[in-house]
Amino acid sequence: MQMDNISIGKLFSIAGRMHHLYIKTKLAEAGLDEISNPHLLFLIYQSQVEDKQITQKSIADTLGVSAAAIAISLRRMANNGLIEKSTAEDDNRFRYVKLSEKGLAMISQCKNLAKNADHNLFTDFSEADQQQFCQYLSRIIANLHKAGVTAPANFCGGKVND
Question: Is-contact 102 123, C-beta < 8 A?
Answer without folding.
Answer: no
